[in-house]
What does this fold into?
Amino acid sequence: MPSKRLCYLTSQRVTTYLWERGELQKEGVFDMNEKGVAEFSRYVAGAPESLFYVLADVVEEDFFQENIPYVRGADRRALLARKLAQRYRDASLALPLSLGSETHAGRREERILYMSFTNAHQFQPWLEALRSHEARLVGVFSVAPVAAQTGKRLGFKGARYLIVSRQQAGLRQSYIENGRIRFSRLGRVDSSDPRTIAQDFAAESLRIQQYLVNTRILPREAPALDVLVLAPSEHKALYDTACVNSARLQFHVHDLDKVAHSLGLKSAPPGALAESLFLHVLAAYPSGEQYADDRLRRFYHLWRARVALLAAGAAAFGFCLLFSAVRLLDTYQANEQAQNNRVQEARASEEYARLQTRFPKTPISSENLKAIVKNYRALLRQSASPGRMFAEISEAVTALPQIEIDKIDWEFGTGVKSAAGREVSKAPSSQPAAQAPAAAGEFQTQTAEISGKLVVQQASDFRAVTALVNQFTEALRKRPGTEIARTQLPFDINAEKSLAGDIGAARREEVPQFSVIVVKRRGT
Amino acid sequence: MNITRDDLKRLRVPLAVAIVLLALGAACLIAGGYHLDEARTARDATRASRVAAQERVLRVAEEEREIRDDLVYYEQMRQRGIVGEQSRLDWIESIARIKDDRKLFEIRYNFEAQKPLDYPGLVSAGAADFVVSRLKLDMLLLHEGDLLNFLADLQAGIRAHVSVRNCTVTRIERGAGPGATTVQPRLRAECQVDLVSIRGIKPA
It folds into this structure.
């Protein structure tokens, strides 16, 4: 962190201080003349890495409150710039401060306090010296807002109060409303007598109270105004005596050294007055409420951009490094687990090899043996003999002597080669459709097309012929796993087709033929 | 604040440093990610190998039983002459012997060229191939028992696995049978039989 150098500017001189961890050291006093400016320029050149704060404590300061329409963004910026330009001849050191919003006649408005150093000319040589040496100017500040900041840091309770302090520049009275500066003035201190100065504190407080009431900044019916008096330690008793409470004023006399100490100021140059407290507050609790424009603060912005870039780069690098470290840790753990797996696998393999010695000797490798036997089992499942089916057909036909079988066409397998097989493939299966493809390899079918003739008295006795064939097919169907895929009678009794016969003339030479397709699914 | 060209020039070095730091960080991340992926892949692979090895150990008793079962089947195959090269001369002699023993009528046979077995459900068995020779039979029978006995004898006697694929048995009309013997065939059977064997088995 670069060192902080604080320039306390009054109408007589500029006093510079080095602020370091709550300690304030005086470094130089530069009179308000060309020689002083030249010395100040050399001083600035000698501290190129420092951050510079200018705290102005001058009489030529204006406070003006006005309401503007409630607008945001670029419109607000343009409006405020125009207002400042209208009010001040030189608005280079001006600051519009928002005091909040309120509604007037149904229209929302923003209360703005315009603050400006009305004699910017006296700042120019000093600011030019800073700019010419590319000094990092954090800002030009006024004691008034810093006093408000001090009151806030002190935790002073009160919606309206006055801070009265004495600096090298004179006696400063700052009126604070709702924590924001509302008005401030710097008065001269002519006497060096502490008692007189203490009486001036009380008198000036009463005078400014009357001014605030007259200018309607302070409501007339308001209760007694709190006055925070920052009194030098050695003369605090005089201030206690001089500052007597009244109907209009309520004094709170605080020991300046104790206040400074409570806010973290460890040491201040000897002889320093309240400016040491305000300088410390400025350095320790920087506020954005400053007067300089971006042109004056250019090198400070550049420094901030440099710091931001480096910090962002370092943060990104650090984040990546951290994330990489986590990944590295994960990698290490994964490698450890892999190594453990290898060790356990080696142990299991050794164990397996040891147990394998108990296995029976195989004429071929165990993998080949397994594959061959698997195929052999599949082959056995797909092998059959027509014997059983022939026996079943024979048993069925034995009970029906009127039936003579001429031909049995038996086939085994899943392929459709014969006419009978094709009939089977068309016939509905008792198995669910979803199971059929999966079971195709397992459930081989035996198909037999039985062709024969019927030895009956009258070939045209359709009822007798039909009953005979039905008896035969029923006898076959009773066998487990047997289905009748098709029955072909010597005639077609379908009502959609023609049917002819002769009743009464028995002609033995007409022998009715029939055929039946029987299917037997293996595994059923 | 408006950024001028001069401002950018002044910010060149920190910008470059930030970019370098960002690039270094990204490189660290990418390298870390690459190594982590590799380590995880290796870990997953070794885990799978380890689990497989451990499961093999757990299944060792079952595997031993399977091998013993397989050996039973293998011995059965070996005894039935399924293992080894096909010998058609032996087959012809077997058919002739059955015909004589059963006193059968005429048997015509036709062996088709040997080819790989293409039954469904068979898988590649390494160096060993299942091959099939398709045998077509044309037989004259006294009754269907002759056919069934012939097939049973064929399955028992021939040095191959016998798989009957189809058989057509037709009645021969009386007086239309060939020959003039007193006992005439009454049936004609046309069968297709697959003779399966395994070749190319290499000892362990």
Remarks:
- Residues 12-58 of chain B form the longest helix (47 residues).
- Chain B is about 50% helix and 20% strand.
- Helices of chain B lie at 5-10, 12-58, 60-79, 88-102, 144-157.
